[in-house]
Protein backbone atom coordinates (compact mmCIF):
# COMPACT_ATOMS: atom_id res chain seq x y z
CA UNK A 1 0.00 0.00 0.00
CA UNK A 2 2.82 2.38 0.82
CA UNK A 3 4.74 1.70 -2.37
CA UNK A 4 1.82 1.61 -4.78
CA UNK A 5 -0.58 4.15 -3.27
CA UNK A 6 0.52 6.32 -0.34
CA UNK A 7 3.98 7.42 -1.52
CA UNK A 8 2.83 8.24 -5.11
CA UNK A 9 -0.20 10.11 -3.71
CA UNK A 10 2.00 12.20 -1.40
CA UNK A 11 4.33 12.92 -4.32
CA UNK A 12 1.44 14.04 -6.53
CA UNK A 13 0.10 16.22 -3.71
CA UNK A 14 3.54 17.88 -3.46
CA UNK A 15 3.63 18.46 -7.23
CA UNK A 16 0.12 19.97 -7.19
CA UNK A 17 1.16 22.95 -5.02
CA UNK A 18 4.46 23.63 -6.75
CA UNK A 19 5.70 24.75 -10.13
CA UNK A 20 8.02 21.94 -11.19
CA UNK A 21 11.04 22.49 -13.45
CA UNK A 22 12.99 19.54 -14.89
CA UNK A 23 11.32 17.21 -12.39
CA UNK A 24 13.37 18.32 -9.35
CA UNK A 25 13.19 22.13 -9.02
CA UNK A 26 10.12 23.22 -7.04
CA UNK A 27 8.65 26.69 -6.60
CA UNK A 28 5.69 26.99 -4.21
CA UNK A 29 2.53 28.27 -5.95
CA UNK A 30 -0.17 27.13 -3.49
CA UNK A 31 -3.63 26.47 -4.99
CA UNK A 32 -2.73 28.06 -8.34
CA UNK A 33 -3.02 24.82 -10.33
CA UNK A 34 -6.33 23.82 -8.73
CA UNK A 35 -7.82 27.23 -9.52
CA UNK A 36 -6.56 26.97 -13.09
CA UNK A 37 -8.04 23.49 -13.53
CA UNK A 38 -11.42 24.40 -12.01
CA UNK A 39 -11.63 27.46 -14.28
CA UNK A 40 -10.75 25.44 -17.38
CA UNK A 41 -13.52 24.75 -19.88
CA UNK A 42 -11.59 21.77 -21.29
CA UNK A 43 -11.53 20.12 -17.85
CA UNK A 44 -15.33 20.27 -17.54
CA UNK A 45 -15.81 19.08 -21.13
CA UNK A 46 -13.60 16.02 -20.64
CA UNK A 47 -15.16 15.36 -17.22
CA UNK A 48 -18.65 15.47 -18.73
CA UNK A 49 -17.61 13.05 -21.49
CA UNK A 50 -16.15 10.66 -18.91
CA UNK A 51 -19.37 10.72 -16.87
CA UNK A 52 -21.46 10.26 -20.04
CA UNK A 53 -19.35 7.30 -21.15
CA UNK A 54 -19.60 5.64 -17.72
CA UNK A 55 -23.38 6.17 -17.62
CA UNK A 56 -23.86 4.69 -21.10
CA UNK A 57 -21.75 1.57 -20.56
CA UNK A 58 -23.22 0.92 -17.10
CA UNK A 59 -26.75 1.24 -18.50
CA UNK A 60 -25.90 -1.44 -21.08
CA UNK A 61 -23.54 -3.76 -19.20
CA UNK A 62 -25.42 -4.19 -15.92
CA UNK A 63 -28.77 -5.36 -17.40
CA UNK A 64 -27.00 -7.37 -20.12
CA UNK A 65 -24.75 -9.06 -17.55
CA UNK A 66 -27.75 -9.98 -15.40
CA UNK A 67 -29.63 -11.45 -18.37
CA UNK A 68 -26.64 -13.56 -19.47
CA UNK A 69 -26.01 -14.74 -15.90
CA UNK A 70 -29.66 -15.78 -15.55
CA UNK A 71 -29.49 -17.75 -18.81
CA UNK A 72 -26.47 -19.82 -17.73
CA UNK A 73 -27.07 -23.28 -16.24
CA UNK A 74 -26.32 -23.58 -12.51
CA UNK A 75 -25.23 -27.24 -12.71
CA UNK A 76 -23.85 -29.63 -15.31
CA UNK A 77 -20.68 -30.60 -17.11
CA UNK A 78 -20.84 -27.60 -19.48
CA UNK A 79 -20.71 -24.98 -16.73
CA UNK A 80 -16.86 -24.74 -16.67
CA UNK A 81 -16.83 -24.33 -20.47
CA UNK A 82 -19.34 -21.47 -20.28
CA UNK A 83 -17.42 -19.74 -17.48
CA UNK A 84 -14.09 -19.98 -19.32
CA UNK A 85 -15.64 -18.77 -22.60
CA UNK A 86 -17.24 -15.78 -20.87
CA UNK A 87 -14.00 -14.91 -19.05
CA UNK A 88 -11.85 -14.81 -22.21
CA UNK A 89 -12.38 -11.07 -22.96
CA UNK A 90 -11.24 -10.20 -19.42
CA UNK A 91 -7.89 -11.89 -20.06
CA UNK A 92 -7.06 -9.62 -23.02
CA UNK A 93 -5.09 -6.43 -22.15
CA UNK A 94 -6.73 -3.08 -22.89
CA UNK A 95 -4.17 -2.12 -25.54
CA UNK A 96 -4.65 -5.41 -27.38
CA UNK A 97 -8.45 -4.99 -27.28
CA UNK A 98 -8.18 -1.56 -28.90
CA UNK A 99 -5.79 -2.74 -31.63
CA UNK A 100 -7.82 -5.90 -32.25
CA UNK A 101 -11.10 -4.08 -32.83
CA UNK A 102 -9.40 -1.35 -34.85
CA UNK A 103 -8.22 -4.05 -37.24
CA UNK A 104 -11.56 -5.88 -37.23
CA UNK A 105 -13.51 -2.80 -38.33
CA UNK A 106 -10.93 -1.70 -40.93
CA UNK A 107 -12.70 -1.54 -44.33
CA UNK A 108 -9.88 -3.37 -46.18
CA UNK A 109 -8.07 -5.58 -43.68
CA UNK A 110 -10.75 -6.28 -41.07
CA UNK A 111 -13.25 -9.12 -41.26
CA UNK A 112 -16.20 -7.00 -40.10
CA UNK A 113 -15.12 -3.97 -42.09
CA UNK A 114 -14.71 -6.01 -45.29
CA UNK A 115 -18.07 -7.69 -44.78
CA UNK A 116 -19.84 -4.37 -44.34
CA UNK A 117 -18.03 -2.98 -47.41
CA UNK A 118 -19.61 -5.72 -49.54
CA UNK A 119 -23.02 -4.28 -48.65
CA UNK A 120 -21.94 -0.69 -49.20
CA UNK A 121 -21.46 0.19 -45.53
CA UNK A 122 -18.33 1.57 -43.92
CA UNK A 123 -17.54 2.33 -40.30
CA UNK A 124 -16.56 5.99 -40.42
CA UNK A 125 -14.76 6.96 -37.22
CA UNK A 126 -14.84 10.60 -38.30
CA UNK A 127 -18.55 10.58 -37.51
CA UNK A 128 -19.36 11.55 -33.91
CA UNK A 129 -22.14 9.00 -33.39
CA UNK A 130 -20.15 6.19 -35.02
CA UNK A 131 -17.01 6.92 -33.00
CA UNK A 132 -18.93 6.87 -29.71
CA UNK A 133 -20.85 3.74 -30.74
CA UNK A 134 -17.64 1.86 -31.53
CA UNK A 135 -15.85 2.66 -28.26
CA UNK A 136 -19.01 1.90 -26.26
CA UNK A 137 -19.41 -1.42 -28.10
CA UNK A 138 -15.76 -2.34 -27.48
CA UNK A 139 -16.08 -1.57 -23.76
CA UNK A 140 -19.31 -3.58 -23.52
CA UNK A 141 -17.65 -6.52 -25.31
CA UNK A 142 -14.62 -6.34 -23.03
CA UNK A 143 -16.22 -5.83 -19.61
CA UNK A 144 -19.74 -7.31 -19.60
CA UNK A 145 -18.08 -10.62 -18.69
CA UNK A 146 -17.11 -9.18 -15.30
CA UNK A 147 -20.74 -8.36 -14.51
CA UNK A 148 -21.82 -11.81 -15.71
CA UNK A 149 -19.32 -13.64 -13.50
CA UNK A 150 -20.16 -11.59 -10.41
CA UNK A 151 -23.92 -11.99 -10.88
CA UNK A 152 -23.55 -15.68 -11.66
CA UNK A 153 -21.58 -16.24 -8.45
CA UNK A 154 -24.39 -14.55 -6.52
CA UNK A 155 -27.08 -16.63 -8.24
CA UNK A 156 -25.26 -19.91 -7.61
CA UNK A 157 -25.05 -19.07 -3.90
CA UNK A 158 -28.85 -18.79 -3.50
CA UNK A 159 -30.14 -21.85 -1.58
CA UNK A 160 -32.70 -24.06 -3.39
CA UNK A 161 -35.22 -23.61 -0.57
CA UNK A 162 -36.01 -20.10 -1.80
CA UNK A 163 -36.91 -21.41 -5.28
CA UNK A 164 -38.96 -24.22 -3.75
CA UNK A 165 -40.92 -21.74 -1.65
CA UNK A 166 -41.50 -19.55 -4.70
CA UNK A 167 -42.79 -22.50 -6.72
CA UNK A 168 -45.14 -23.47 -3.90
CA UNK A 169 -46.52 -19.92 -3.99
CA UNK A 170 -46.97 -20.26 -7.79
CA UNK A 171 -44.58 -17.40 -8.51
CA UNK A 172 -43.84 -16.79 -12.19
CA UNK A 173 -40.34 -16.19 -13.61
CA UNK A 174 -40.49 -12.42 -13.18
CA UNK A 175 -41.59 -12.66 -9.54
CA UNK A 176 -38.84 -15.17 -8.77
CA UNK A 177 -36.29 -12.72 -10.19
CA UNK A 178 -37.86 -9.67 -8.51
CA UNK A 179 -38.36 -11.11 -5.02
CA UNK A 180 -35.81 -13.93 -4.77
CA UNK A 181 -32.84 -13.48 -7.10
CA UNK A 182 -32.46 -9.70 -7.29
CA UNK A 183 -32.41 -9.15 -3.48
CA UNK A 184 -29.90 -12.00 -3.08
CA UNK A 185 -27.47 -10.67 -5.71
CA UNK A 186 -27.85 -7.04 -4.64
CA UNK A 187 -24.46 -6.89 -2.92
CA UNK A 188 -22.46 -8.48 -5.74
CA UNK A 189 -24.38 -6.26 -8.16
CA UNK A 190 -23.28 -3.16 -6.27
CA UNK A 191 -19.67 -4.42 -6.39
CA UNK A 192 -20.07 -4.85 -10.15
CA UNK A 193 -21.40 -1.29 -10.48
CA UNK A 194 -18.54 0.06 -8.36
CA UNK A 195 -15.82 -1.76 -10.32
CA UNK A 196 -17.31 -0.91 -13.68
CA UNK A 197 -17.76 2.75 -12.78
CA UNK A 198 -14.13 3.06 -11.71
CA UNK A 199 -12.83 1.25 -14.82
CA UNK A 200 -15.07 3.07 -17.29
CA UNK A 201 -14.42 6.47 -15.70
CA UNK A 202 -10.68 5.90 -16.14
CA UNK A 203 -10.96 4.53 -19.70
CA UNK A 204 -7.90 5.40 -21.76
CA UNK A 205 -6.42 2.77 -24.07
CA UNK A 206 -9.41 1.82 -26.24
CA UNK A 207 -10.55 5.34 -27.28
CA UNK A 208 -6.95 6.49 -27.63
CA UNK A 209 -6.14 3.65 -30.05
CA UNK A 210 -9.44 3.48 -31.95
CA UNK A 211 -10.44 7.14 -32.38
CA UNK A 212 -7.35 9.09 -31.25
CA UNK A 213 -9.77 11.40 -29.46
CA UNK A 214 -11.61 12.28 -32.67
CA UNK A 215 -13.55 13.49 -34.44
CA UNK A 216 -12.15 16.73 -33.11
CA UNK A 217 -12.03 16.27 -29.35
CA UNK A 218 -15.36 14.47 -29.03
CA UNK A 219 -13.83 11.26 -27.59
CA UNK A 220 -11.11 12.88 -25.48
CA UNK A 221 -11.86 11.80 -21.92
CA UNK A 222 -10.39 13.10 -18.67
CA UNK A 223 -7.77 10.33 -18.55
CA UNK A 224 -6.48 11.25 -22.02
CA UNK A 225 -6.43 14.96 -21.21
CA UNK A 226 -4.47 14.19 -18.06
CA UNK A 227 -1.95 12.07 -19.96
CA UNK A 228 -1.43 14.79 -22.58
CA UNK A 229 -0.82 17.38 -19.87
CA UNK A 230 1.62 15.18 -17.96
CA UNK A 231 3.49 13.25 -20.67
CA UNK A 232 3.35 15.45 -23.78
CA UNK A 233 3.37 18.94 -22.24
CA UNK A 234 5.33 17.81 -19.15
CA UNK A 235 3.24 20.19 -17.05
CA UNK A 236 3.64 18.23 -13.83
CA UNK A 237 2.06 20.68 -11.40
CA UNK A 238 -1.05 21.15 -13.55
CA UNK A 239 -1.41 17.41 -14.19
CA UNK A 240 -0.93 16.63 -10.49
CA UNK A 241 -3.83 18.94 -9.62
CA UNK A 242 -6.02 17.22 -12.24
CA UNK A 243 -4.98 13.83 -10.82
CA UNK A 244 -6.02 14.76 -7.28
CA UNK A 245 -9.39 16.09 -8.46
CA UNK A 246 -9.82 12.94 -10.56
CA UNK A 247 -8.92 10.79 -7.54
CA UNK A 248 -11.34 12.70 -5.29
CA UNK A 249 -14.24 12.17 -7.70
CA UNK A 250 -13.62 8.41 -7.83
CA UNK A 251 -13.28 8.17 -4.02
CA UNK A 252 -16.51 10.15 -3.57
CA UNK A 253 -18.51 7.85 -5.86
CA UNK A 254 -16.93 4.76 -4.29
CA UNK A 255 -17.96 6.06 -0.84
CA UNK A 256 -21.52 6.74 -2.01
CA UNK A 257 -21.84 3.21 -3.44
CA UNK A 258 -20.32 1.77 -0.27
CA UNK A 259 -22.91 3.59 1.86
CA UNK A 260 -25.67 2.29 -0.42
CA UNK A 261 -24.36 -1.24 0.02
Question: Concise description?
Answer:
The chain is built from 13 helices and two strands; from the N terminus they run αββαααααααααααα. It is mainly alpha-helical and 261 residues long.
Descriptive notes:
By secondary structure, the protein is mostly helical. It has one domain (2-88, 135-202, 218-260): MetI-like fold (Orthogonal Bundle), CATH 1.10.3720.10. The protein contains 13 helices and 2 strands. The chain has helices spanning 2-16, 32-38, 41-71, 79-87, 94-104, 111-118, 128-156, 160-168, 173-184, 186-201, 205-210, 222-232, 236-260, and strands at 18-21, 25-28. Strands 1-2 form a two-stranded antiparallel ribbon. A hairpin with a 3-residue loop joins strand 1 and strand 2. Helix 2 (32-38) packs across helix 13 (236-260), helix 3 packs across helix 7 (128-156) and helix 3 (41-71) runs antiparallel to helix 10 (186-201).
- Give the helices and strands as they follow along the chain: HEEHHHHHHHHHHHH
Task: Return the average pLDDT rounded to an integer.
Answer: 90
Highest-level CATH class: Mainly Alpha
> How much β-strand is present in the residues?
under 5%
**CATH fold-type name:** MetI-like fold
Shape: globular
Domain tally: 1
* Largest sheet: spatial strand order: 1-2
Strands, count? 2
Question: What share of residues is helical?
Answer: over 70%
Number of helices: 13
